Amino acid sequence: MTGERPTFLFDGDCAFCSRCAGFVERHIPTRAAVLPWQRADLDALGVSQQQADAAVQWIDPAGVAAGPDAIARLLRDAGSFWRPLGVALGAPPVRWLAWPAYRWVARHRDLMPGGTAACALPAADRH
């Protein structure tokens, strides 16, 4: 990881993911750089292309978090009323439920609001 500023990576090739990232940039006051993984220096961040393609990533000096764990860290970083949401998302049993929900949304992101056919994961990744 370079610098002390956190980084939040999303799939810039997915319209649904890009809309969600836009919401984060407009409404959630995080310190993180919100970047499509396709434009990030993954080697410098310590994240593989496979990891970035599989789930959103949060990278900070404490390490890397993926999926709902990354979202929880982003929300905690934002402070204000976002922090309790991040704490709840990262705590059992919410965290246990968040992962299956995240995987379901990831598999069906082409059907989500703003999603397009380009958002669809390869068929092998959908089961």
From TrEMBL:
Pfam families: DCC1-like. This is DUF393 domain-containing protein. One of its GO terms (molecular function) is protein-disulfide reductase activity. It comes from Actinocatenispora thailandica.
